Write a sequence for this structure.
């Protein structure tokens, strides 16, 4: 861990005081377990017991179709594939496992339909209403949990937006190890970079000048983390 202005940051280098680097099947299974725990907490925001319950019901309450098995295979492939990866990757929930989200959503919906077919839509609808009510009650706390997550804050964007003359091209100074220093601004870019402000990473005068040439109509600024400095033409 390296101390930065935003707090401690992980620095990836060989440190004899840390556990040995590397990966193994045992560590992969450990990471899988952590991701499954996170999936149960974060997939739909329901109590963990209910998160995958409808997936099970899709197979237990009726004869599963070929499509059900294929969807389950997608989920297993994503989970099994990441057993071979060295990091758990948990951030904003089990983010690497969200590749299986379409399959999980469809299987959940099929499980709800199976419950309705067996117990009636009143039963299925009642359970869903209770779960949605749980979502509404717990949503404010979940939003607070992600406020300032990974040292990312919207304060810098607000300060820049209040001070620049648009259209603007703002270079953000960031260290080599702390992605969030620029990451906090990157979300302010539109996919086509046509918004009032375009944020770019400060790569030094020469590289910055090359990028400014691609946006000649925009005023240039440098954000140092504390001050916004206009770039002279």
């Amino acid at each position: 861990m390296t101390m930065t202005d935003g707090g401690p940051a992980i620095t990836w280098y060989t440190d004899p005081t840390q556990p040995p680097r590397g990966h193994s099947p045992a560590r992969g299974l450990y990471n899988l377990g952590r991701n499954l725990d996170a999936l149960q907490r974060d997939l739909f925001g329901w109590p963990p017991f209910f998160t995958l319950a409808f997936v099970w019901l899709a197979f237990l309450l009726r004869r599963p179709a070929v499509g059900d098995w294929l969807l389950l295979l997608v989920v297993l492939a994503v989970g099994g594939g990441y057993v071979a990866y060295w990091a758990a990757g948990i951030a904003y929930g089990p983010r690497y496992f969200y590749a299986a989200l379409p399959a999980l959503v469809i299987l959940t919906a099929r499980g709800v339909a199976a419950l309705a077919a067996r117990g009636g839509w009143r039963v299925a609808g009642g359970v869903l209403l209770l779960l949605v009510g749980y979502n509404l009650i717990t949503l404010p706390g979940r939003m607070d949990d992600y406020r300032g997550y990974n040292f990312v804050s919207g304060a810098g964007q607000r300060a820049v937006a209040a001070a620049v003359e648009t259209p603007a091209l703002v270079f953000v100074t960031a260290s080599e190890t702390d992605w969030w220093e620029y990451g906090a601004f990157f979300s302010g870019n539109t996919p086509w970079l046509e918004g009032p402000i375009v944020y770019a990473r400060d790569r030094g005068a020469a590289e910055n000048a090359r990028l400014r040439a691609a946006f000649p109509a925009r005023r240039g600024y440098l954000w140092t983390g504390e001050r916004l400095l206009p770039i002279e033409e």
